[in-house]
Predict the structure of N-acetyl-gamma-glutamyl-phosphate reductase.
Amino acid sequence: MVRVSIVGASGYTGAELAGLIHKHPEFEIAGLYVSENSNDAYKAFSAIHGQFAYQIDRTLIPISEKQITKLVAECDAIFLCTPHEASVEMVRRIIEAGGVVFDLSGAYRLSDLSVINEYYGFSHKYPDLLNQAVYGLAEWNHADIRKSNLISVPGCYPTACLSALKPLQEAKLIDSNVLPIINATSGVTGAGRKAAISNSFCEVSLHPYGVLSHRHQPEINEHLGTPVIFTPHLGNFKRGILATTTLKLADGANAKQVNQVYKEAYEGHPLVRLRQAWPSIQAVERTPFVDIHWQFDEKTGYLIVISAIDNLLKGAAGQAMQCANLRFGFAADRGLVN
Ligand SMILES: NC(=O)C1=CN([C@@H]2O[C@H](COP(=O)(O)OP(=O)(O)OC[C@H]3O[C@@H](n4cnc5c(N)ncnc54)[C@H](OP(=O)(O)O)[C@@H]3O)[C@@H](O)[C@H]2O)C=CC1
Ligand SMILES: CC(=O)N[C@@H](CCC(=O)OP(=O)(O)O)C(=O)O
């Protein structure tokens, strides 16, 4: 069995991951951790996440950045389900101690230090590690994920958007003179478990945020290889993301070519479902899949692509599990689909 520890296990993505590992035939939980001064230190994991009562009988252990190194000797891999700033330092310590880390935060997803500073508001101290990090978009980077000790798991919106757009970009079917426009809506778990006025029950309706300034725009740009306009929205539901992209196809490109590139890109990748109907959040909620469907308008030359994921699964814990499967030599979907 592959023994793994989860830091940030009281949070939403950490809890999902604990659930996935608990039922995985090849992995087992070595330990569940929270921060040094956490209000949840020494509480039972299932006291916070009641769905795991009588299933995952574990205590949340507090851990400091400095103590993280000791985990490396006690398990085969560490998942960081922690805030970006906390991950920066913990990743460095794990890698220096010879460990394997799957970081769910945005700390190691971008390569340009000035872009990190602009969008995350801190200066990154470890440019060498940024170069070493493999971006864990599982269907696209599986060969590198298998060999890496530092896997940076993509953000939730980028997973939905890149899954929809990469087949077209790789096949050069997008008109490079017209930026793809992405409008995406997320459920409130996307913002994490910590209390905030903007995420409280009576404040959430359906509204845009981070317009022209969200950190996922440079993440999509970098890993797609072409700039986009990305506008996120918050919706009044718990989990899921639906992303609608409107883009102009390159001159001469047609519907048949589009169908073919999607088919070829995702042949043999069972967690991507090329649907014959428009995706919905209901169809992906609590599943590890990304659903994609598209339609070409011959009159205007524009293509509409819609993708949907569960932000906590394909957008976070599910994809982290896919990466861990690949890194430890299992099929990408092992333990994720029955
Ligand atoms: N929610 C989502 O849909 C997605 C989230 N992500 C990213 O994944 C990470 C986790 O997100 P999410 O689960 O939503 O966040 P939550 O706020 O729900 O959970 C964060 C967890 O980290 C712990 N934590 C905070 N600071 C530290 C620290 N210094 N050391 C150790 N543990 C710490 C918290 O516990 P405590 O503070 O009590 O110690 C808690 O367990 C974030 O970086 C987020 O950006 C990525 C994709 C999707
Ligand atoms: C609804 C909501 O607030 N969503 C989060 C995205 C969560 C996520 O995937 O992203 P990171 O790992 O990059 O934080 C946001 O917009 O900040």
